[in-house]
Amino acid sequence: MTAQNKKIAWSIAGTVIAVLVLLYIFVPPVHRFGNRLLGRSEKTYPKPDSLKVDEFEYGVPQDLKGEIIDVPRDSLLDSLMLADTTLRPVEGPPPTPVPGFGDGELPPMPSENDLPIKIAPVKPENMPVSIDEIEHFVSSNASVNAKLTTCRDNYKKLHDLYSEFVAHPTREYQEVGAKLKKELLGQLSQLMKAAQSANDSNCEEETAALRREVNKMKF
Description:
Blueprint: H1 3-26, H2 28-38, H3 75-85, H4 142-167, H5 171-197, H6 201-215
């Protein structure tokens, strides 16, 4: 046999084998015949509409009886479910329209600029005393005495403002109070220099007391 004849014979054999494999896969009679030749047993699975005993793979189905467990109901959950699914009439007279309500246009929505600006509440460790609780002295120097009187008046105003700031802390009170505090500390520094120049120890003592109380105010 020549090489060409061998090639033709192998081609025919391959074609025959391929045809047989395709027939075995896609043709049921050929598939069953092939299984019988190979000694393979076919398992027939039950159909959904079949109740034959021999078609069930795991035997005859048994009637299972489940145990009924009595679980106590949640009364709160039941009431919530009932409230969601039941429409109950509201007792009382029917609602009546309010004259003028909803007739006009709605007011504009507030913006951030319209809302009041508040800061954290102030909790001073020790509240500064009032001007009446500070011991007063009268200086023999008229200029020093006039400056001392001015500082007392300004301290009273600043103390009243600080009391209001503690009760209602706002950005406006904070800014005004910080400005007045800075101005009063400058006036007290000038008063201390004037009292030292006049050698007035009593005025120096009162000025120092005013400065200590002013420094307690935290704006």
